[in-house]
Amino acid sequence: SAVISQKPSRDICQRGTSLTIQCQVDSQVTMMFWYRQQPGQSLTLIATANQGSEATYESGFVIDKFPISRPNLTFSTLTVSNMSPEDSSIYLCSVGWGYNEQFFGPGTRLTVL
Amino acid sequence: RKEVEQDPGPFNVPEGATVAFNCTYSNSASQSFFWYRQDCRKEPKLLMSVYSSGNEDGRFTAQLNRASQYISLLIRDSKLSDSATYLCVVNAPAGGKLIFGQGTELSVKP
């Protein structure tokens, strides 16, 4: 497994602003992912963060709205841009090695007013 | 059809009960299967991986039936601390991403 931290743990933001969430891992990992969990729902994959190249987005998610960086094998950021109340959610990063299990960070609880 | 479907909950059981969760998946090419546990306002945590031969970890037993594309989790001698949402998770055949079921909530009562 790995120790994963996320910053911030929570935030309350105004409509139209952007928030960048950081994910830090204590060891090098092959794969990093970003998920969203809306209230009362299960997890939905936003994108796979690729080291040194553009992220791979899932259907319904676009780079302009959720730009992602992954400058190295232990760190990634997700930005939620031009936020609206519908973006209120928990955002989680996860890490994995190949096609095996993934381990999740503690999440960032975002409220957009 | 959803890619991963679970029993709708919630399950309310007394301490000491045996409870079983069921899950089906749609992509027959899926290779890896997991059960995660998510406590309220926490991140999902891996409970156990599921292997073709079935596997057991203490009070927890997971089974996989590839022919029926069916996964199960059995919890014996339920404890209050087992109360959580249990997520059936399947690894997509390509790309390494995980696909989550909607979760089944378990509440164990004294």
- Give average pLDDT of chain A, whole number: 94
Protein chain pair with the most extensive contact, residues per chain: A-B, 24 and 21 residues
Task: Report the structural category of chain A.
Answer: mainly beta
Total helices of chain A: the number is 0
Q: What is the N-to-C succession of helices and strands of chain A? A: EEEEEEEEEEE
Q: Helix fraction of chain A?
A: under 10%
The fraction of residues assigned to DSSP E strands of chain B is over 45%
Quantity of strands of chain B, as a count: 11
Query: Poorly predicted ranges of chain A (pLDDT <50, ≥5 residues)?
Result: none
DSSP E strands of chain A, number: 11
How much of the polypeptide of chain A forms β-strand, as a percent range?
A: over 45%
Task: State the gist of this model.
The complex is a heterodimer of chains A (113) and B (110). With 113 residues, chain A is mainly beta. Chain A has no helices and eleven strands.
Describe this structure in words.
The complex is a heterodimer of chains A (113) and B (110). Chain A is an all-beta fold and 113 residues long. Chain A is 0% helix and 51% strand. In chain A, the strands form 2 sheets. In chain A, strands 2, 4, 5, 6, 9, 10 and 11 form a 7-stranded mixed β-sheet that branches. A 4-stranded antiparallel β-sheet of chain A has the order 1-3-8-7, with no helix packed on it. In chain A, strand 5 and strand 6 (56-57) form a beta hairpin. Chain B has no helices and 11 strands. Chain B has strands spanning 4-6, 11-14, 19-25, 32-38, 45-50, 55-57, 60-65, 70-75, 84-91, 98-100, 104-109. Chain B is globular and about 45 Å long.
